[in-house]
Amino acid sequence: MTDPAIADLSKDAAARAAVALVEPGMRLGLGTGSTAAIFVRRLAQRVSEEGFALRCAATSKATAELATSLGLGVEELDEIGWLDLTIDGADEVDPDLNLIKGGGAAHLREKIVATASERMVVIADQGKVVDRLGQFHLPVEVIPFGWQATRKLIQRALDRLDLTQRPILLRKRGDAPLRTDEGNLILDLALEAIPDAEALAAELSSIAGVVEHGLFLNICELAIIGCPDGSVVELRREDMA
Ligand SMILES: O=C[C@H](O)[C@H](O)[C@H](O)COP(=O)(O)O
Protein backbone atom coordinates (compact mmCIF):
# COMPACT_ATOMS: atom_id res chain seq x y z
CA MET A 1 0.00 0.00 0.00
CA THR A 2 1.53 3.28 -1.14
CA ASP A 3 1.70 6.17 1.34
CA PRO A 4 -1.26 8.47 0.40
CA ALA A 5 0.93 11.60 0.13
CA ILE A 6 3.40 9.81 -2.15
CA ALA A 7 0.51 8.39 -4.16
CA ASP A 8 -0.88 11.90 -4.69
CA LEU A 9 2.43 13.16 -6.10
CA SER A 10 2.54 10.15 -8.38
CA LYS A 11 -1.07 10.58 -9.48
CA ASP A 12 -0.37 14.21 -10.28
CA ALA A 13 2.65 13.26 -12.39
CA ALA A 14 0.53 10.80 -14.37
CA ALA A 15 -2.32 13.31 -14.71
CA ARG A 16 0.01 16.03 -16.03
CA ALA A 17 1.45 13.66 -18.62
CA ALA A 18 -2.06 12.68 -19.71
CA VAL A 19 -3.13 16.33 -20.08
CA ALA A 20 -0.35 16.69 -22.66
CA LEU A 21 -2.15 14.06 -24.81
CA VAL A 22 -5.23 16.27 -25.14
CA GLU A 23 -5.51 18.21 -28.39
CA PRO A 24 -7.77 21.18 -29.08
CA GLY A 25 -11.22 20.16 -30.34
CA MET A 26 -10.98 16.61 -28.99
CA ARG A 27 -13.98 14.60 -27.86
CA LEU A 28 -12.81 13.42 -24.46
CA GLY A 29 -14.02 10.87 -21.89
CA LEU A 30 -13.39 11.85 -18.27
CA GLY A 31 -12.86 9.01 -15.78
CA THR A 32 -13.85 8.70 -12.14
CA GLY A 33 -11.87 8.48 -8.89
CA SER A 34 -9.11 10.40 -7.15
CA THR A 35 -6.59 10.13 -10.03
CA ALA A 36 -9.15 11.07 -12.67
CA ALA A 37 -10.18 14.04 -10.49
CA ILE A 38 -6.59 15.32 -10.48
CA PHE A 39 -6.57 14.95 -14.27
CA VAL A 40 -9.81 16.94 -14.56
CA ARG A 41 -8.31 19.74 -12.42
CA ARG A 42 -5.09 19.83 -14.47
CA LEU A 43 -7.08 19.74 -17.70
CA ALA A 44 -9.32 22.64 -16.61
CA GLN A 45 -6.18 24.61 -15.73
CA ARG A 46 -4.70 24.04 -19.20
CA VAL A 47 -7.98 24.86 -20.97
CA SER A 48 -8.36 28.14 -19.04
CA GLU A 49 -4.74 29.10 -19.82
CA GLU A 50 -4.84 28.17 -23.50
CA GLY A 51 -8.56 28.76 -24.15
CA PHE A 52 -9.28 25.94 -26.58
CA ALA A 53 -12.53 24.04 -27.12
CA LEU A 54 -13.19 20.45 -26.04
CA ARG A 55 -16.23 18.21 -25.88
CA CYS A 56 -16.29 16.12 -22.69
CA ALA A 57 -18.39 13.16 -21.55
CA ALA A 58 -18.17 12.12 -17.88
CA THR A 59 -18.19 8.58 -16.46
CA SER A 60 -20.08 9.53 -13.28
CA LYS A 61 -22.24 12.20 -11.72
CA ALA A 62 -19.32 13.10 -9.43
CA THR A 63 -16.97 13.71 -12.35
CA ALA A 64 -19.63 15.65 -14.27
CA GLU A 65 -20.13 17.92 -11.24
CA LEU A 66 -16.40 18.45 -10.75
CA ALA A 67 -15.72 19.19 -14.41
CA THR A 68 -18.67 21.56 -14.67
CA SER A 69 -17.61 23.40 -11.50
CA LEU A 70 -14.18 23.97 -13.09
CA GLY A 71 -15.68 25.40 -16.28
CA LEU A 72 -15.33 22.34 -18.52
CA GLY A 73 -18.47 21.79 -20.59
CA VAL A 74 -19.89 18.29 -20.06
CA GLU A 75 -22.34 16.69 -22.48
CA GLU A 76 -24.16 13.36 -22.58
CA LEU A 77 -22.16 10.68 -24.39
CA ASP A 78 -24.95 10.33 -26.94
CA GLU A 79 -24.87 14.05 -27.71
CA ILE A 80 -21.21 13.69 -28.65
CA GLY A 81 -21.67 10.29 -30.28
CA TRP A 82 -18.11 8.92 -30.22
CA LEU A 83 -14.93 9.92 -28.39
CA ASP A 84 -11.32 10.37 -29.45
CA LEU A 85 -9.75 9.62 -26.09
CA THR A 86 -10.73 8.57 -22.56
CA ILE A 87 -8.44 9.14 -19.60
CA ASP A 88 -9.29 7.20 -16.44
CA GLY A 89 -7.74 5.71 -13.31
CA ALA A 90 -7.65 2.02 -12.34
CA ASP A 91 -7.49 -0.14 -9.24
CA GLU A 92 -5.09 -2.68 -10.76
CA VAL A 93 -3.06 -2.75 -13.99
CA ASP A 94 -1.38 -5.96 -15.14
CA PRO A 95 1.54 -6.31 -17.62
CA ASP A 96 -0.92 -6.78 -20.54
CA LEU A 97 -2.74 -3.59 -19.52
CA ASN A 98 -5.77 -5.54 -18.37
CA LEU A 99 -7.43 -3.74 -15.49
CA ILE A 100 -9.63 -4.03 -12.45
CA LYS A 101 -11.85 -0.96 -12.11
CA GLY A 102 -14.89 -0.03 -10.06
CA GLY A 103 -13.38 0.78 -6.67
CA GLY A 104 -15.51 3.92 -6.89
CA ALA A 105 -18.54 1.97 -8.19
CA ALA A 106 -18.35 3.69 -11.58
CA HIS A 107 -17.08 0.86 -13.80
CA LEU A 108 -20.33 0.44 -15.78
CA ARG A 109 -20.36 3.97 -17.17
CA GLU A 110 -16.54 3.88 -17.34
CA LYS A 111 -16.61 0.80 -19.57
CA ILE A 112 -19.31 2.28 -21.82
CA VAL A 113 -17.30 5.49 -22.22
CA ALA A 114 -13.94 3.71 -22.67
CA THR A 115 -15.28 1.38 -25.35
CA ALA A 116 -16.94 4.30 -27.14
CA SER A 117 -13.48 5.88 -27.47
CA GLU A 118 -10.79 5.45 -30.07
CA ARG A 119 -8.21 5.22 -27.26
CA MET A 120 -8.34 4.57 -23.53
CA VAL A 121 -5.38 5.72 -21.47
CA VAL A 122 -5.03 4.82 -17.79
CA ILE A 123 -3.29 7.03 -15.26
CA ALA A 124 -2.15 5.54 -11.96
CA ASP A 125 0.49 5.45 -9.27
CA GLN A 126 2.96 2.57 -9.00
CA GLY A 127 0.92 0.87 -6.28
CA LYS A 128 -1.68 -0.08 -8.91
CA VAL A 129 0.74 -2.11 -11.04
CA VAL A 130 0.48 -5.85 -10.34
CA ASP A 131 1.86 -9.06 -11.83
CA ARG A 132 -1.57 -10.68 -11.81
CA LEU A 133 -5.05 -9.21 -11.27
CA GLY A 134 -7.17 -10.13 -8.28
CA GLN A 135 -5.76 -8.80 -5.01
CA PHE A 136 -8.16 -5.87 -5.30
CA HIS A 137 -11.74 -7.06 -4.77
CA LEU A 138 -13.41 -7.38 -8.18
CA PRO A 139 -16.52 -5.15 -8.32
CA VAL A 140 -19.59 -6.57 -10.03
CA GLU A 141 -22.61 -4.32 -10.60
CA VAL A 142 -25.89 -6.24 -10.20
CA ILE A 143 -29.58 -5.42 -10.58
CA PRO A 144 -31.27 -5.07 -7.14
CA PHE A 145 -34.11 -7.43 -8.21
CA GLY A 146 -33.13 -10.94 -7.10
CA TRP A 147 -29.61 -9.91 -6.17
CA GLN A 148 -29.19 -12.76 -3.69
CA ALA A 149 -29.99 -15.30 -6.43
CA THR A 150 -27.47 -13.48 -8.63
CA ARG A 151 -24.92 -13.80 -5.84
CA LYS A 152 -25.55 -17.60 -5.73
CA LEU A 153 -25.04 -17.79 -9.50
CA ILE A 154 -21.77 -15.87 -9.18
CA GLN A 155 -20.68 -18.29 -6.44
CA ARG A 156 -21.43 -21.25 -8.73
CA ALA A 157 -19.48 -19.62 -11.55
CA LEU A 158 -16.51 -19.15 -9.22
CA ASP A 159 -16.77 -22.80 -8.15
CA ARG A 160 -16.59 -23.88 -11.82
CA LEU A 161 -13.38 -21.86 -12.15
CA ASP A 162 -11.91 -23.45 -8.98
CA LEU A 163 -12.27 -20.14 -7.14
CA THR A 164 -14.14 -21.80 -4.29
CA GLN A 165 -14.88 -20.31 -0.87
CA ARG A 166 -14.23 -16.75 -2.03
CA PRO A 167 -16.27 -14.16 -0.11
CA ILE A 168 -18.75 -12.11 -2.15
CA LEU A 169 -19.46 -8.91 -0.27
CA LEU A 170 -22.37 -6.52 -0.73
CA ARG A 171 -20.81 -3.05 -0.84
CA LYS A 172 -22.27 -0.62 1.68
CA ARG A 173 -22.20 3.11 2.22
CA GLY A 174 -22.70 3.52 5.98
CA ASP A 175 -25.32 0.98 6.99
CA ALA A 176 -27.16 0.89 3.67
CA PRO A 177 -26.24 -0.94 0.47
CA LEU A 178 -24.40 1.39 -1.88
CA ARG A 179 -26.35 2.37 -5.00
CA THR A 180 -24.50 3.15 -8.20
CA ASP A 181 -25.32 6.08 -10.49
CA GLU A 182 -27.68 3.66 -12.27
CA GLY A 183 -29.38 2.64 -8.99
CA ASN A 184 -27.80 -0.82 -8.92
CA LEU A 185 -25.84 -2.72 -6.23
CA ILE A 186 -22.18 -3.69 -6.12
CA LEU A 187 -20.92 -7.13 -5.11
CA ASP A 188 -17.18 -7.20 -4.38
CA LEU A 189 -15.48 -10.54 -5.10
CA ALA A 190 -12.54 -11.24 -2.77
CA LEU A 191 -10.66 -13.51 -5.17
CA GLU A 192 -7.01 -12.96 -4.10
CA ALA A 193 -5.87 -13.87 -7.62
CA ILE A 194 -7.57 -14.38 -10.99
CA PRO A 195 -5.92 -17.26 -12.87
CA ASP A 196 -7.98 -16.78 -16.08
CA ALA A 197 -9.50 -13.32 -16.42
CA GLU A 198 -11.08 -14.05 -19.84
CA ALA A 199 -12.90 -17.11 -18.47
CA LEU A 200 -14.09 -15.22 -15.39
CA ALA A 201 -15.30 -12.29 -17.48
CA ALA A 202 -17.27 -14.65 -19.76
CA GLU A 203 -18.86 -16.45 -16.79
CA LEU A 204 -19.88 -13.20 -15.09
CA SER A 205 -21.26 -11.68 -18.29
CA SER A 206 -23.49 -14.73 -18.84
CA ILE A 207 -25.42 -14.20 -15.57
CA ALA A 208 -28.74 -12.41 -16.10
CA GLY A 209 -28.60 -10.18 -13.01
CA VAL A 210 -25.04 -9.02 -13.66
CA VAL A 211 -24.97 -5.63 -15.35
CA GLU A 212 -21.18 -5.29 -15.67
CA HIS A 213 -18.01 -6.48 -13.98
CA GLY A 214 -14.88 -4.47 -13.32
CA LEU A 215 -12.53 -6.49 -15.54
CA PHE A 216 -11.36 -4.27 -18.43
CA LEU A 217 -9.70 -6.71 -20.83
CA ASN A 218 -8.00 -5.51 -24.02
CA ILE A 219 -9.50 -2.03 -23.68
CA CYS A 220 -6.62 0.08 -22.36
CA GLU A 221 -3.92 0.95 -24.87
CA LEU A 222 -1.50 2.93 -22.73
CA ALA A 223 -0.92 3.22 -18.98
CA ILE A 224 0.92 6.24 -17.63
CA ILE A 225 2.38 5.33 -14.26
CA GLY A 226 3.38 8.31 -12.14
CA CYS A 227 6.37 8.29 -9.80
CA PRO A 228 6.80 10.43 -6.65
CA ASP A 229 9.72 12.36 -8.23
CA GLY A 230 7.39 13.65 -10.95
CA SER A 231 8.60 11.30 -13.66
CA VAL A 232 6.34 8.83 -15.46
CA VAL A 233 6.71 5.38 -16.96
CA GLU A 234 4.61 4.49 -19.98
CA LEU A 235 3.36 0.92 -20.41
CA ARG A 236 1.96 0.04 -23.82
CA ARG A 237 -0.02 -2.95 -24.97
CA GLU A 238 2.24 -4.82 -27.37
CA ASP A 239 -0.39 -5.58 -30.01
CA MET A 240 -1.37 -1.91 -30.29
CA ALA A 241 2.13 -0.40 -30.28
O1 LIG B 1 -15.09 3.22 -10.02
C1 LIG B 1 -14.05 3.86 -9.95
C2 LIG B 1 -12.98 3.81 -10.92
O2 LIG B 1 -12.84 2.61 -11.61
C3 LIG B 1 -11.65 4.42 -10.51
O3 LIG B 1 -11.05 4.83 -11.70
C4 LIG B 1 -10.73 3.47 -9.78
O4 LIG B 1 -11.39 2.99 -8.63
C5 LIG B 1 -9.40 4.16 -9.38
O5 LIG B 1 -9.67 5.18 -8.49
P1 LIG B 1 -8.50 6.01 -7.77
O6 LIG B 1 -7.85 6.82 -8.83
O7 LIG B 1 -9.22 6.86 -6.75
O8 LIG B 1 -7.60 5.00 -7.14
From TrEMBL:
User: What reaction is this protein's catalytic activity?
Assistant: aldehydo-D-ribose 5-phosphate = D-ribulose 5-phosphate
Question: Could you tell me which Gene3D superfamilies the record lists for this protein?
Answer: 3.30.70.260, 3.40.50.1360
Top-level EC class as recorded in UniProt: isomerase
The EC number(s) given in the record are 5.3.1.6
Q: Where does substrate bind?
A: 32-35, 88-91, 101-104, 128
Q: Name one GO cellular component term.
A: cytosol
**Is Transcription a UniProt keyword of this protein?**
no
Q: Give a GO molecular function annotation for the protein.
A: ribose-5-phosphate isomerase activity
* List of catalytic residues: 110 (proton acceptor)
What's the superkingdom here? Bacteria
Tell me the GO BP annotations in alphabetical order. D-ribose metabolic process; pentose-phosphate shunt, non-oxidative branch
Pathway terms, separated by semicolons: Carbohydrate degradation; pentose phosphate pathway; D-ribose 5-phosphate from D-ribulose 5-phosphate (non-oxidative stage): step 1/1
Keyword DNA repair among record annotations: no
Tell me which UniProt keywords the record has, alphabetically. Answer: Isomerase
Tell me the protein family, please: Belongs to the ribose 5-phosphate isomerase family.
**Its job:** Catalyzes the reversible conversion of ribose-5-phosphate to ribulose 5-phosphate.
Per UniProt, subunit arrangement is: Homodimer.
Q: What is this protein called?
A: Ribose-5-phosphate isomerase A
This chain's source organism reads Paracoccus denitrificans (strain Pd 1222)
Question: What would be the name of the gene that encodes this protein?
Answer: rpiA
